[in-house]
Amino acid sequence: MRSIRRRVLAAVAVVATTAALAACANEPAGPGLASSSSNTGASGGSGGQSAAAADPTLPRRLADAVSGDDAVTHLQALERIADENDGNRAVGTPGYDASVEYVAGALRQAGYEVQTPSFDVRTFSVQDQRLTVGGTAVESSVLGFSPATAPGGLTAPLFVVPQDATSGCETADFAGMPRGAIAVVLRGTCPFGQKSQLAGQAGAAGVVVVNTDDTPLSATLGDTQGVVPSTSVTRSAGQTLVGRNGAQATLLLATTLQQQTSRNVVAQTTTGDPNRVVMAGAHLDSVPEGAGINDNGSGSAALLEIAQKLGAAPPAGQSVRFAWWGAEEIGLVGSTKYVESLSDADKKKIATYLNFDMVGSPNAGYLAYDGDNSDDEGAGPGPAGSDVVEKVLVDGLGSVGVRAEGTDFDGRSDYGPFIEAGIPAGGLFTGAEERKTPEQAQAWGGQAGQPYDPCYHTECDRLTNVDRTAFDRNIDAMALGIGRFAVSLDGIPAR
């Protein structure tokens, strides 16, 4: 799950490489939920199983088949991969490549033909970062894909932008700023890249973003053009800066950008209508700071468990396509390039997309993306049919005794490019750095006033950070949702 409030894409150049790896057709299929009917065998790419042959009991049977214990074995494997590869599974690292091979291998053993389409991605590394104000060092965290400063840094007066709801999101916010100043803006409302871009257009030489709490900010500027060297500070440090408007500050950022090739993992059932595809995805990469076992080992492991138990040839009316995305943490890159690689006709074949990012947070919320915008907050509703996706997933959590709340389509995960393509979407989420309200704690348990995941984007995001109860409940709800749409697209409009 990316740590920005709205979607910001990392700069990418897609490699149009969509050829599959070897099908491994001679491997035995996993158990799955294949029907004993002669009509449910693999049919190749020309037809698949008819909707009439779909088994209406599939959703319940799939939910009964999936196991939290079995999914935990995937979490253990991902943690082991991170431990063997410098502690993380970030894109562009051996840890991510090993994660791809693990998921692809498990799918092949379950009888799937697996593709690993590749894409080029711009990666980012930091050699040095320093911020001093009036000669005093201030702890800071560089924003991903920030340009470097000159080797000696830049020294300029601070200019405190009005600390309101649109801080740094409008050109007018920078009125009166001396040219070459370092702008201090509050986090929120618009993407970090937009704040940096507008500051640069107004003449700022650098930007400092003040976080809304006292945790370090892990965030990215993405591919926004015209940005300036940008870093961030905690709320308490930011309050000090706000009180020193006009003070001389020095910002030094030594950063490097590189072009690398990465991969997604994609597998589709051989049964069901291939012209009406139910797609479910989870990002597979972690941040460089840690193993990423909740973010997003939890979604990846849960989805892999469901794919294995569903099997490659289930009695379904629609084909089911599973995807594990790369480079989500630096801008939804893998999912975006995948959607962009599809023809308009192939996009229309995707009936709906379900996204699962962080489904085991230790102070868990039970959140479903607000497809109908019933909360009337933030982004509007998703494409037509997203309301149905939300209801199905909410009902799935209800079946395990949990009353879910809506959460905004704020563009922070891989549903973003599907929504932009007009594809109905939804998903489940147990929360990241936001804090649980007293009302939520009363309804769901846990600690009010504390983050849903205090280890979000940090070294402590390990297996011990995953709440097993939340993980198990979400796996069941995911299975019910995927199974429901596999047998029936009632309420999902044709496009």
Q: Using the coordinates above, name the CATH class of the largest domain.
A: Alpha Beta
Please state the second-level CATH architecture of the largest domain.
3-Layer(aba) Sandwich
The topology string of helices and strands comes to: EHHHEEEEEEHEEHEEEHEHHEEHEHEHH
Q: Averaging pLDDT over every residue, what do you get?
A: 90
Describe this structure in words.
The chain is of the alpha/beta class. The chain folds into 2 domains: 12-23 and 45-117 and 264-487, Aminopeptidase (3-Layer(aba) Sandwich), CATH 3.40.630.10; 123-257, Glucose Oxidase, domain 1 (3-Layer(bba) Sandwich). The protein is built from 12 helices and 17 strands. Helix 2 (68-83) packs across helix 6 (293-310). Helices cover 28% and strands 21% of the residues. Strands 1, 3, 4, 5, 6, 7, 8, 9 and 10 form a 9-stranded mixed β-sheet that branches. Strands 2-11-13-12-14-17-15-16 form an 8-stranded mixed β-sheet. Strand 7 (182-186), helix 4 and strand 8 (206-210) form a beta-alpha-beta unit.
Highlighted features:
495 residues, alpha/beta, Aminopeptidase, 2 domains, 9-stranded mixed β-sheet, protease, carboxypeptidase activity, TAT_signal, signal, Zn-dependent M28 family amino/carboxypeptidase
Quick rundown:
This protein is α/β, with parallel strands linked by helices and 495 residues long. The chain is built from 12 helices and 17 strands. It folds into 2 domains: 12-23 and 45-117 and 264-487, Aminopeptidase, CATH 3.40.630.10; 123-257, Glucose Oxidase, domain 1, CATH 3.50.30.30.
